[in-house]
Design goal:
heterodimer; A: about 150 residues; mainly alpha; 4 helices; elongated; B: about 200 residues; 8 helices
């Protein structure tokens, strides 16, 4: 029974080495990248992985407003999370395939944002008619909800 | 080489200015467990890391921390906009204001300016990774404490996000430590320092 529970809860439990040398700290390895939140939920919670989602006093963030900016942020965030996962799981071919899909979605979301709001990187200005880097507001400036 | 992206990792939209809150949150810009120290710790530890997984992890987490420093600075900037002199005096931000006006200066909430003494680069795989694990926990606790003291929902949303990132980074550094130890002498992890002894 206990063993069965452990198998079902595998996404929130990881493995320790066997045997483990003494006088060393051990963090269990995250075993696989399932289950995962959808991108918008991952961004609002601060992790792609429910197994690592451990909120203070169990208080969870409300959903973020859906704008082209938060949609792009959500895809960018999934890419960031997968990169850190792949740094310590470089042989996980399944997740590398997912990373490929996310990179394609990221390019699409980026291109849409650049068309709507101007360059995110200086190099996004390839083919633009004038120097547009200074036009869109800077990220730290206050803008109301719904405004970019 | 670093390239700037004109966006934040997570939206910062603080509707109500609140200099009193800025006075404590500034610690996560320039305090002992803040984001400036985090990025400097990881980006500078990279050079003595002998293993590719760790070079990658320190580069990627160190870069993300630079983005977090910008997010916390954005919170400070938005909390301190349109302050009256009366609000500055009443909030207790006056001691900060006299030196920095409404600029963002990396300091601890206590007023102690950011110091490289709050971080470590030991040049040893095990020592540096254990430092990083502790650093993520200390930053997590600072965010816990901010959540205890703040009742601004706009601020807390960002703080909860940043706090959760500390937990994810802790896990990744732990996995990085595991990968490093697997490459070392299992019978005596302390026989040599693979960062230095080749």
């Amino acid at each position: 029974m206990e063993k069965q529970c452990a198998a079902m809860e595998r996404w929130r439990l990881g493995s320790l080495p066997d045997p483990a040398p003494l006088a060393a700290a051990y963090i269990p390895m995250q075993e696989g990248a399932e289950p995962r939140y959808v991108p918008q939920e991952a961004l609002s919670r601060g992790t792609l992985f429910p197994g690592l989602d451990l909120p203070f006093l169990h208080v969870v963030n409300p959903d973020l407003e859906q704008t082209p900016m938060t949609e792009m942020m959500a895809i960018d965030f999934v890419a960031d999370e997968l990169e850190l996962y792949l740094d310590t799981h470089p042989g996980d071919t399944e997740i590398f395939a997912l990373y490929q899909t996310i990179l394609a979605m990221q390019k699409e979301a980026r291109d849409r944002m650049v068309r709507l709001c101007g360059p995110i990187c200086q190099t996004d200005q390839l083919g633009m008619e004038r120097y547009a880097w200074l036009e869109a507001p800077w990220p730290w400036e206050y803008r109301k909800r719904g405004e970019g | 080489m670093f390239v700037y992206e004109k966006k934040l990792q997570f939206p910062v939209k603080i509707a109500n200015p609140n200099p009193k809150l800025a006075k404590i949150i500034i610690s996560q810009v320039g305090g002992p467990d803040g984001e400036l120290g985090a990025s400097m710790r990881y980006l500078n530890q990279r050079y003595s890391m002998p293993y590719d997984e760790l070079k990658g992890l320190l580069t990627d987490i160190g870069t993300e921390e630079l983005g977090h420093m910008e997010m916390v600075a954005a919170i400070i900037h938005q909390l301190t906009r349109k302050m009256s002199t009366e609000e500055i005096l009443r909030s207790g931000l006056d001691a900060y204001f006299v030196d920095h006006t409404a600029g963002v200066y990396p300091t601890a909430a206590s007023g102690f300016p950011w110091s490289a003494a709050s971080m470590a680069v030991k040049g040893d795989v095990l020592a540096d990774l254990n430092e990083d694990l502790a650093a993520e926990q200390k930053a997590r606790v600072t965010y816990d404490n901010i959540l205890r003291l703040s009742d601004d929902p706009d601020v807390n949303q960002v703080i909860r996000y940043l706090r959760e990132r500390e937990i994810v980074h802790y896990q990744r550094f732990g996995e990085g430590l595991r990968l490093a130890m697997e490459k070392m002498d299992q019978k005596n992890l302390y026989a040599v320092n693979p960062s230095f002894d080749r």
